[in-house]
C-alpha cells in the first residue's frame, strides 16, 4: 500500500467514525422517545438532551423548538459526513460542532455537580481524536502531489511497429510484492525492468514495479501482454507451446522454457 493509500484509509476511518457517531445519536433519540433508558455514549449530547429538555418542559411549542434544533444539528453532521468525502474542510466543521457539543456536555455535568459523566467525557474525547485525525489526514491528502500511478491519461509518444501512433499505456496498479507470485521471466531493456509473472490465476506484465497489462485464465494458452511507454512497445507472453518470452519493439530480449 502506498503512502497515499494509507492516508486515504485513515481519512476514511475518521469519516466512518463521524457517521457512526451520527447514527448512534439518532438511535439514542429513538430509544428515549420509545421509553428506553439505554443510551449509546459514542454520540452527540446537544441533540439528545435537547429532545429530553423539550419533552419534560411540558410545553409543546418549546418541544417543537428543541426538536427543530436537534434535527438541524443532525443534518449539519450528515452534511459534514457527505461533503467531507471530497472536501476535508467539512471535517473541520464537524470538529468545531463536536467541540461545542463536548463543552456543552462538560458544562451540563458541572452545573449538575455530577461526576458520573466521566465515561461520557472520555468517549467524547475519543470521537474528537478521530475528527482531529480526519482533519490532519484530509489536509495531507489535499497537499499531496498527484502520483503518476493515478494518471491514466494517454500521451502520444512514438509510432508503433506497424506505423500507427502509439499511446503511453495507463498503469493498472502498483505490483503487490507481498502477494505470493511466480516469476515466469524477467529482463532489463530500454532502461526498464520488465517482469512477466503469475499471481494465482492472473498473468501480469510488470514494468518498473507497476502492472501495465494482465490476463486471467485457469489453463494457460498462447497470449501476449502489451504495454507502450517511452517510445517503446513492451510485450511478454506465452507462445502456447513451451516458452515464455519478452519482446521490446518486436525484438525478443528474453526467452525461457516453460515446463509447467
Secondary structure layout:
Blueprint: H1 3-33, H2 45-56, H3 60-83, H4 89-112, H5 118-143, E1 156-159, E2 165-167, E3 173-174, E4 182-189, E5 192-199, E6 202-207, E7 210-216, E8 223-229, E9 232-238, E10 243-248, E11 251-257
Antiparallel strand pairs: 1-2, 3-7, 4-5, 5-6, 6-7, 8-9, 9-10, 10-11
Description:
The protein has 260 residues and is of the alpha+beta class. It has 5 helices and 11 strands. The protein has helices spanning 3-33, 45-56, 60-83, 89-112, 118-143, and strands at 156-159, 165-167, 173-174, 182-189, 192-199, 202-207, 210-216, 223-229, 232-238, 243-248, 251-257. The strands form 3 sheets. Strands 3-7-6-5-4 form a 5-stranded antiparallel sheet, with no helix packed on it. β4 (182-189) and β5 (192-199) form a beta hairpin. α1 (3-33) packs parallel to α2 (45-56) and α2 (45-56) packs antiparallel against α3 (60-83). The longest helix is centred in the first third of the chain and has 31 residues, at 3-33. The radius of gyration is 29 Å and the shape is elongated. It starts with a helix and ends with a strand. The relative contact order is 0.09. Residues 148-162 have low confidence and may be disordered.
